[in-house]
Amino acid sequence: MQPFSLSTIINHPCFTPILLPIRQKIIISIISAAFAGVATLIAYQCLVYLVAEQSVIWLYRTMLFFILGAILGGISLWLAHNAENQFAKQLQLALINKALHIPKHTLSKYNNHSLRRLLSEDVSELHYMVAHLPAELSVLCVVPIFSAGFLFYYLGAKAIWVLLPGIMASLYYLWMVPYINQRDGVGRMQTMKNMIDALNDYTRGVSINRIFGQDKGALENYRQSSDNFLYQMNLWIKKVVLPASFAVSLLQAVATFTIAYIIAKNLDMASLLGVIFFSLAVVTPALRLGHGLDYVITGRTAASRIITFLSLPNLPYGEQLLPKVSLSFNIKNLSFSLENRKIFHQLNYEFPRGEITILTGQSGVGKSSLLSILAGQEVPNSGEVYINKVAIYELSQEEQKKHILFIPQHHAVIASSIRDNMHLFVQTATDIQLLNALQKVHLNKDLNFPTHQLSGGEKQRLILAIVLLSTAQIILLDEPMSALDRQATNELLALLENFVKQHKKILIMITHDHSLIPKFSSHLHLSSYQSEGENSHE
Ligand SMILES: Nc1ncnc2c1ncn2[C@@H]1O[C@H](COP(=O)(O)OP(=O)(O)OP(=O)(O)O)[C@@H](O)[C@H]1O
């Protein structure tokens, strides 16, 4: 992806609401940085007078302006970092918020690794652009002008000769180095990406690689790509870093010193010192900025990824509220396609209250997709999901969450304690209530028990305990008993049936177990749209 330009990033509607609150701090930081630069230059001038007159008053003035420069520089840095922290926090919240509001299949295009990268690495890669770049640009505008002014004061028109090496070094640093960098940058970035990918593949796949005896191969991949990365970095140091540092030290410092000495040798010692100070000071802001330009390139790439994510369309939400009792739940003419492939077409069904509805159909037919649509987490192409005759997208997200408990097939249990997992769904339940629910599903574990040590069947029991505690009227479960044996399935189904009947809930459950079909009077069967042209229900 071609990174967006800086002006597109700053003016993008996703970024402006996050940048606006920190605008004031950034402006004050920019002004403080410029004044800090000027105060330091004045301190240099006082130093020249101190050398010339050797009086205490110039010593005090020199100290005063150096201290003033340091204080203003400190204020500038503090404000910029404070603003950047605020910016990073708001940006992370915006990203998390976006992840909660986009359709499920859009979110599934981002794996855990790329989501984590967006939230952590990409946000921190904007650090330089927010906390340093504005101040460095302002110093680059102000300090060279003042330095040149002082030089003209000492040398008149001849100052142009002493300025030349500084100007050339600055141009080399700000134009040539980024050009060379960019020319080789894509290859270098690719090598770095290969190495990170190899590392991620290795760490992510370590347990699977062990099963297939591929762990040595994965490690070898990582070793090769890190060797390649080292080779590329050494090449970059040879081609870019060394010539740049030679240019800066020889061209700027040595040439400036020589020219300044030749031109100003008739001046007194103090003025010669002034000439050298100010001609060296011309280039300092350019060096600082030049060093940061690398971060601007990576920052622009990170910002482009963030903007692309924040621009994804949200799920539709409304403001409607629902009554607490007597819910009806039905779908009307529901059709859904993914990547231009029709999954199901014109589905109609009324889900009865106080009963379990089972949802069946062969693998890949669209059962999980239908469940996501029923939960309001996916948008159908046409048709509606109605709760109490209100279309689901007219409800607010909070209202949907209040009335619907949706537990997808994967990722339903997070790696933490049993208590944490239960509190995710039922925040107000006491420990006694949690333990009661666990007891009903025959999961005899402590609330602090780590969930990564639970078996597949035990995780499903934990989910069912959560269902028993939930106050939601509509419960959507994706294969909740697939890891349980026949006896446990029958016991837990009986428990669920009672619970649903007693509390007049609507429970829809995907199953591949066809022996369960006769047990339930409400049954929605999805057939493949491609092979049969329509979906059926019983
Ligand atoms: N994020 C996605 N992007 C594109 N296609 C997808 C995505 N998720 C699922 N699909 C496709 O949509 C179709 C329906 O998938 P879905 O998971 O709803 O089927 P399912 O009936 O629940 O399958 P299973 O019983 O195997 O869990 C499948 O063919 C699947 O390949």
TrEMBL record:
GO terms for molecular function: ABC-type transporter activity; ATP binding; ATP hydrolysis activity; ATPase-coupled lipid transmembrane transporter activity. InterPro entries: AAA+_ATPase (IPR003593), ABC1_TM_dom (IPR011527), ABC1_TM_sf (IPR036640), ABC_transporter-like_ATP-bd (IPR003439), ABC_transporter-like_CS (IPR017871), ABC_transpr_CbiO/EcfA_su (IPR015856), P-loop_NTPase (IPR027417), Type_1_exporter (IPR039421). The chain crosses the membrane at residues 26-52, 58-80, 137-154, 160-180, 240-263, 269-290. Its main location: membrane. Keywords: ATP-binding, Cell membrane, Membrane, Nucleotide-binding, Transmembrane, Transmembrane helix, Transport. Residues 329-538 form the ABC transporter domain. It holds the Pfam family ABC_tran. It is found in: Cell membrane. GO terms for cellular component: plasma membrane. SUPFAM superfamilies: ABC transporter transmembrane region, P-loop containing nucleoside triphosphate hydrolases. This is ABC transporter ATP-binding protein. It comes from Pelistega ratti.
